[in-house]
Amino acid sequence: MSKMMMVSSGGIELVGLSYSSPELFQMKKEVGDKFKTLVKWDPDDMHVIHVQHPKDPSYWIPVPSRNPNYASQLSWVQHRNIRSFAREHFKEIRGQDQLDKARAELQELWHSCMIKDRKKLDYKKAVQNQGLSSGKIWVPGNEIVTDMQHKPAPVALIIPDTKITPLEIPDFDSFSIY
After folding, report:
1. 15 conformational bin, left if phi > 0, alpha if psi -120 to 50, beta if neither
2. DSSP designation for 142
3. Fewer CB within 10 A of the end CB, N or C, for the chain?
4. Starting at the edge strand that comes first in sequence, how are the strands of the sheet with 45-53 ordered?
5. For the packed helices 96-116 and 76-89, what is the interaxial angle rounded to 10 degrees?
6. Are 66 and 11 in contact (CB under 8 A)?
7. Where are the domains of the chain?
8. Is 70 helix (H, G, I), strand (E, B) or coil?
9. pLDDT of residue 140
């Protein structure tokens, strides 16, 4: 995903998540205190965003979240669901505490629903909130964490190291029936 965003004194704010790094502050020294630039992120893992240098479009820097415990292995859909739940249920709490509490409550809610009544569970929402998606591929040494006890998810797909050699495209003769 990508979006033109404002870099300001605190770094970058992306839908309630703050991102900052020493490299970003160095970029601010080169460009100015406030500027707009292109920002890209992986919708399956919000722990880091990538910021394009406004003066050199080929130069990108990774900028980590200021709250890595919350953003690590958090998907875009999960974050939107957590924010929506937090606004609805925790109006008295603000900031990161509101998101942390909402995330914990949602995980408990989905866990209890999966155990109690499988017939009434919205499986699509449950899968989204567990962080599973078709875009996640298991890479050795990079386990996917799906719950608060940090147990790795079962391996769903292992792709062996293979070399794909391109095949030569054959020539076909054309003809006309007229």
Report:
1. left
2. B
3. C
4. 2-7, 35-42, 45-53, 56-64
5. 100
6. yes
7. 2-70, 73-153
8. helix
9. 45
| DSSP at 170 | P
Mean pLDDT per 10-residue run, the chain (178 residues)? 92 91 93 93 92 93 92 87 84 78 79 56 56 48 45 51 64 66
The single residue listed with the structure tokens 């008295």 is 92
pTM of the model: 0.61
| Cβ within 8 Å of residue 139, ≥6 positions away | none
Which of 82, 81, 75, 83 shows the shortest CA–CA distance to 146? Answer: 75
Q: Specify the length of the chain in residues.
A: 178
Contact 38, 2 (CB under 8 A): yes
The neighbouring-strand residues paired with 48 are 64
